[in-house]
Amino acid sequence: MIEGGYSEDTPAAIVYKATWPEQKVLRCTVGTLEQTAREADVTKTALIVVGEVLDGTYERSKLYDPTFTTEFRQASCSKKELGQTGENQSTEMRQEAEGQSK
What we know:
Layout: E1 11-16, E2 24-29, H1 33-39, E3 46-50, H2 79-82, H3 86-100
Antiparallel strand pairs: 1-2, 1-3
């Protein structure tokens, strides 16, 4: 990955057995991916996620956002009703993922 242009400090995560009861989310960096996988004995059945998406500094996709209206679908609630903004949602998603890794 480093040869492909990612810096060693780029955020990364190993999602071991995603959606299984024994799922683990191992947060690391591109520079520590190999060591993290080795220490957790992850050799297969893992998804590797790399990039700033792991920082929580992104806006959630509108595809499933219940507050987003398109010409084909009406929003099912307002942001006020939901009590969240896109930023809050991404922060909560990141916190949920971090909670699963503990």
